[in-house]
Amino acid sequence: MSPVALALMGTLFTFLATVLGSATVFLFKKDIPKEMQRAFLGFAAGVMVAASVWSLLIPSMEMADEAGQTAAWPAVGGFALGAAFLLLLDRLLPHLHMGSDHPEGVKSSLSRTTMLVLAVTLHNIPEGLAVGLAFGLSGASEAVSFSGALALSLGMALQNFPEGAAISLPLKKEGFSNLRSFVYGGLSGIVEPIAGVLGVLVAGSITGIMPWLLAFAAGAMMYVVVEELIPEASLGEHSHVGTLSVLLGFAVMMLLDVALA
User: What are the start-end ranges of the H helices in 93-145?
Assistant: First the structure.
């Protein structure tokens, strides 16, 4: 299969996990309990931290070594650019986090619902880029194997499932029907296949950029983890549930990467 087809396959799998998570709106009558929300957010943070190291930064440095480059430059430079890119999106894109009444980004006349969905969409951009690049690389470099790309997509899917529920259930609480909440929740993940395929196309058109793009995805994911997921997992206070869930997510992603490598 071509790198683009592989990237599309991997990111559609993670998108499907978001859709399935959104479908829980048909099963639950109420919003997610706070402790469960902490657990979901913490688990997602742990998965993304482990994926950033094992599935993105280490392969980035290995690819740079293969190409005869200094490994530190693409790893550090790409990481910084990825974080800066998410910071820029965070400042510019109008969005609203769950439980908040104050939108972030530039002032906009967008509806509250649209801005709630855009907040989750921000998370999915680096996830889609990471999975797409991993699958696109799996047939072209020894730095990333197909099993390694599969481990990354499984880890992302595991944290996308509760993420889908975390957007659809609050939308239901906002007064939307089950079907409308499900559709909005599912659509929040459609950016993953788009980001993944675009990343592979860019990498294929510019020689030597792949190590930078891998580190870029890692930096973008770490920005999301530090800026949003870990603080929200604590919900404004120290939380053993949130902390233990971060550690569990990290361990699960690490185990997947080692077991399937």
Answer: 112-138
- Cβ contact 48:54 at 8 Å: no
What's the rounded Cα separation, in Å, for the pair 84 and 219? 8
Give me the amino acid identity at 129: L
pTM of the model: 0.87
Where does residue 119 fall: left (phi above 0), alpha (psi -120 to 50 degrees), or beta otherwise? alpha
Q: Which residues contact 79 (CB under 8 A, 6 or more apart)?
A: 57, 215, 216, 218, 219, 222
Q: What is the mean pLDDT of residues 25-53?
A: 83
Contact (Cβ atoms closer than 8 angstroms) between residue 145 and residue 138:
yes
Higher pLDDT, 143 or 106: 106
227-to-17, 83, 97, 219, 221 alpha-carbon distances in Å: 24, 10, 12, 12, 10
d(CA 180, CA 184): 6
